[in-house]
Specification:
Elements (H helix, E strand, L loop, with lengths): L2 H6 L10 E3 L8 E6 L2 E10 L6 H18 L3 E11 L8 H16 L3 E8 L4 E10 L15 E4 L5 H9 L5 H12 L3 H10 L3 E4 L4 H13 L2 E4 L10 H6 L5 H10 L3 E3 L5 H7 L8 E5 L4 H8 L7 E7 L6 E3 L1
Parallel strand pairs: 4-5, 9-13, 10-13
Antiparallel strand pairs: 1-2, 2-3, 3-6, 4-6, 7-11, 7-12, 8-11, 9-12
Helix pairs in contact: 2-3, 4-5, 6-11, 7-9
Length: 325
Amino acid sequence: MSELTQVLRHLVPVEDPNALVDATTGDDAAVYRISADRALVVTADFFTPVVDDAYDFGRIGAANALSDVYAMGARPLFGLNLVGFPRKLLGEGILEDILRGGGEVARMAGIPVLGGHSIDDAEPKFGMVVVGEVHPDHMATNAGARPGDRIVLTKPLGTGVITTALKAGAAPAETVATAVEFMATLNRGASEAMTAVGVRAATDVTGFGLLGHLRSLLRASGVGASLDVGRIPVIGGARTLAAEGHVPGGSRRNLDDLEPDLEWGAGIAEVDRLLLADAQTSGGLLICVPEDRVDALMGRLEGNAPAAAVIGEIVEGEGGRISIR
C-alpha cells in the first residue's frame, strides 16, 4: 500500500448521490451534479518552481491546474490563484511575472481568474483552483476503461528529468525551452478531441508518471494494460540526461512503488524504465479509446496536441497490472 493510499483510506466515505467523482478512484478532479445535464468539475493544484523564469513558472502552473479539468472531458469556467510567496521579495516584480504568466494561460483557455488566496511563504508556490462544467453522461473518468481500448498519449515524457538537469546546470538551453513549451501548452485541444469521439476513460500524466497514472486508471476500471515502450514519445535530450543521472527522486520512488504491478520485457533499459515513471509537470492526456474510434481520435488530435501516439492497449486481467514490451 502506497503512502498516499494509506492517507486516503482515512477519509470519511461520501454518501451524497450527487457526488459523481470523489477521491476513491484517484481521478483528476471532483465532480458534483447540480442538475440532470450539468455537473461541476473542481480541482486544485500548485507546486514549487520547476523552471528559473517566473513568467514561465506561472504559465506552467496554470496549464497544469487546468489539465485536471480537461482530463475529465470538461470545460473550464474560471480559476482562482493559489500563491505562496516570501513577503520580503514582493517589491522585486517576481510575483507579478508569475501571475502574468498564469493569467496569460487562463486567457488562452478562455476563462477569467476571479481572485484567489496568498500566504507569506519562504519558498514560492503557485497554482490554481479551477472550476469547470461537464454533462454527467459525457465525462471521462479513471473507471471507464474497457478491454480492447487503445491507449493514446498526447505529450512526450521527460519533463521531470529535464527540470532536474536544469537545477544542476546540466540541461541544454534548447532542451529546456522545448520542455517549457510542452509544459505550458494546454490540454484543451486533446480534451476537445476525445470528447468529440466519445471517450469515457482518461487521465493526465503528472507527478506519478505515465505508469503511476495509468495504474490508477487500471485499478479503478478493474483491467490491465500492455504497453509498447518503442511507441512512447520522449522529449529530445531527456534520455541522454536521464542516462547521465539527472533523475528526480520522485521518479525513482514512483518506480519502486510500481514494481509489484509491472511486468518488464527482456532488454528494456533502466533509463527507459525511469522515463516511464518520470514525475511529470503538466504532462499530456492519457486516453483510452475504443478500437473503432482510434482513427477518428488521431485525426482530431493532429495539430491540436503536442503528440498523438498509440502506446498500448487495455487488456483483461488483474486491475492495475501493466506489461511493458
